[in-house]
UniProtKB/TrEMBL annotation, chains A, B:
Homodimer. It comes from the Bacteria. It comes from Nonomuraea indica. Pfam families: Dabb. This is Dabb family protein.
Length: 97, 97
């Protein structure tokens, strides 16, 4: 299994509306990209100080399925329209489990 | 459920031996900290360029269980002895699912 992990911080200029739109848009992706095995996304819960603003954990059966998701036009559209305009930093890694 | 997500990068001075020691030490934690519900850790698989070096995804039933893990002396010992000496950057967030 490939577990894809991403953390974002948002820009200071990002509005609450822009920030709130990211999770609902990402949660549409499993219906469009059947290679996604499991998908958890959302804003930081604010439990520990100094956290990043948003997290994605996505599981795939194979590297090929992860790459299909990564490069999928529906996913790329959410990145371009919802994430990139408010993204300050992005950190990512993939675990092979 | 609380899903705790962490990404690390290691320093340029970190040795292969130091980097290889992190995952086995972290994987001992579920036996010592029963509040951990699910625990996946490991180095980046090298699939996508520009990735962070290491990821942790840990699940807990509650905020209290996460905090028990976060502050547990056995966990803090791994952080102090294995992670901090080679840590360049750390990014983290908690999802409330």
């Amino acid at each position: 299994m490939i577990r894809h992990v991403v953390l974002f911080t948002w820009t200071e200029d990002a509005t609450d509306e822009q920030k709130a739109a990211v999770a609902p848009e990402l949660r549409k992706l499993p219906a469009a990209i059947p290679q996604i095995r499991s998908y958890t996304v959302g804003p930081d819960a604010g439990i520990s100080p100094g956290g990043h603003d948003f997290a994605v954990v996505a599981d795939f059966d194979s590297v090929a399925d992860f790459e299909t998701y990564r490069d999928h036009p529906v996913h790329q559209a959410v990145i371009a329209e919802r994430i990139k305009p408010i993204m300050a930093t992005r950190a990512a890694a993939q675990l092979s489990l």
